[in-house]
Amino acid sequence: MTLLLVLVVGGVIGWLASILMRTDAQQGIFLNVVVGVVGALIAGVLITPLIGGAPITSGAFDIMSLFASFLGAVVLLAIVNLFRRGSIR
């Protein structure tokens, strides 16, 4: 059940991050889920030690973990855009 929640919440987080970074037109549902879950993993390593909480990949679904996972997804998309386009946006 936790895996299903991580995939659904990761998909929503990836979709919201792709809207913010203006990459939604190039991504489908699968890439949104991948961006959300990988963003949550990045958040677990980089962001949650700074702001506290736990990433959604550990099963925590509070507002701090959702925000950290969203920031991780935005960081992931910024890095991808930097390599693909030469700019963050």
UniProtKB/TrEMBL annotation:
Q: Which UniProt keywords apply?
A: Cell membrane, Membrane, Transmembrane, Transmembrane helix
Task: Give the Pfam families listed for this entry.
Answer: Transgly_assoc
InterPro entries tied to this protein? Transgly_assoc (IPR007341)
Where does it reside?
Cell membrane
Entry's transmembrane regions: 6-22, 29-51, 63-83
Lipid bilayer topology: Multi-pass membrane protein
**Superkingdom, taxonomy of origin:** Bacteria
What family does this chain come from, according to its entry?
A: Belongs to the UPF0410 family.
What name does the UniProt record give this protein? Answer: GlsB/YeaQ/YmgE family stress response membrane protein
Species in which this protein is naturally found = Novosphingobium clariflavum
